[in-house]
C-alpha cells in the first residue's frame, strides 16, 4: 500500500510539474506574441503608416483646423450641381436640374427661383459687378440666358452653340461672356451688343471626362469635355477665330482620358499635360491664372490608401508643381479661394459614414482641415465666397451648407 501511494504521489507530482511547464510555456508564448504585436503595431503606425500617408489627408485632431458649420439651405429635392457666389458674397446661386435658386447668405432667406431653361442647367456664373448672371442648359437650342440678379428677369438670349455648354465665364471687365461646349467650341459674346465677339483673351484647358458630369441629367453623357478658361490676361496676345480650338480637342494626342490640353488660343501650339493613369474628373484655374488644378480618378490602388490625386500645373511651362494625394477614388470637385491660397476638394467614396471636404493650404501644400458633412450624400459642388473663408457645398439631396473653414464663429 505504501509503495502504491508513493508511485501514485510521484505520478501526480509529475503530471503537476508537466502542467506547470506547459502553462509556463503557454504564458511565455503569449507574452512573446504580445510583445511581437506591440513591436509590429509600433513599426506599422510610427514608421510605415506615416510613409504610406505622406502628403495624404491624414490629420490628428490637434493638428487640424476646426471648421464651423454656419447654415444649411434646403433648396430643392433635385440634385444641386452648380454653385456661384456673387462678387460681394451676399448672394448664392444654385443650379438644380432646370431650376436656378438664389439665396441671401446673410439672412438665409431664398430670394427667388426661376425655371426659364428648357433643360438641365449646365453652367452658371455672375458678372464682375454682380448685377447680372449667365446660365446655360442642356436643350435643343443650347441657349445662354443673361438675367438680372435682383429680379431674375431674362435680359438677353444668346445663341450660337450647337452642343451642350460645359463652361461659362465673364471677362474681368464684364464686356465679354465666354462659353465652351463639350466638343471644344469656344464662343465669346459682346455683352453690350449680344453679338459674337471675334477676340478672346485668356488660356483654355480641356480634359475628357469618363463619367456622367451632371448628375441630374436624364441621359448619360460619357466622354464629355471638362472645360476651364483662365480669364486673367497676363500678356497682350489677341486670339482670333476661336472655332479652330476644336482642332485641339480633336487631336490624336488628346485622345486619352489622362491628358489635359492647355492652349492660349488657336494661334499657338497646345501644351499637353499627362497625369496617367489617372483620368481627369475636374479642372480649375487659380485666380491669378498661374496654376491649373486637376482632380483625377485612380483606377487601381492597394488598400485605397491614396487613390484620388490633385495635380497642380504651372500654366506657363506645363510642368507639375505639386501632387496632392487624397482618399477616395475620385476628386470630382475643386474650388480655389479668391486669394488663391486655399483649395477645397471633395472626398467621395472613401468613408461610408459621411462625405468629407478637404481644405488644402497651397503655400505649404498640406492639408489643414477635413470637414465632416454628416451626410451620406455625395458632394456635387464647392464654391468660396469673396471673404476667402466661407465655403459653400452642395450634395445630391438638394441641400447647401455654408462653412467657416477657420472655425471662428462670426455674428
- Sheet with the most strands, sense and barrel status: 4 strands, antiparallel
Residue ranges: pLDDT <50 for 5 or more in a row? 53-57, 211-223, 234-241
The percent of residues in helical segments reads: 10-25%
The helix/strand class is mainly beta
Ends apart, CA distance between termini: 97 Å
Q: Compute the average pLDDT.
A: 76
Please tell me about this protein's structure:
The chain is 13% helix and 38% strand. The protein has 411 residues and is mainly beta. It has one domain (67-404): 7 Propeller (Methylamine Dehydrogenase, Chain H), CATH 2.130.10. The model is unreliable at 53-57, 211-223 and 234-241 (pLDDT under 50). A hairpin with a 5-residue loop joins strand 26 (379-384) and strand 27. A 4-stranded antiparallel sheet has the order 1-28-27-26, with no helix packed on it.
Features:
mainly beta, 28 strands, 411 residues, Methylamine Dehydrogenase, Chain H, four-stranded antiparallel β-sheet
SSE layout and pairings?
Elements: H1 2-52, E1 68-74, E2 80-85, E3 91-96, E4 99-104, E5 110-114, E6 121-126, E7 132-137, E8 144-148, E9 154-158, E10 165-170, E11 176-181, E12 186-190, E13 196-197, E14 203-208, E15 225-230, H2 246-249, E16 259-263, E17 271-274, E18 280-285, E19 291-296, E20 308-314, E21 320-326, E22 334-336, E23 342-347, E24 356-361, E25 366-372, E26 379-384, E27 390-395, E28 399-404
Antiparallel strand pairs: 1-28, 2-3, 3-4, 4-5, 6-7, 7-8, 8-9, 10-11, 11-12, 12-13, 14-15, 14-16, 16-17, 18-19, 19-20, 20-21, 22-23, 23-24, 24-25, 26-27, 27-28
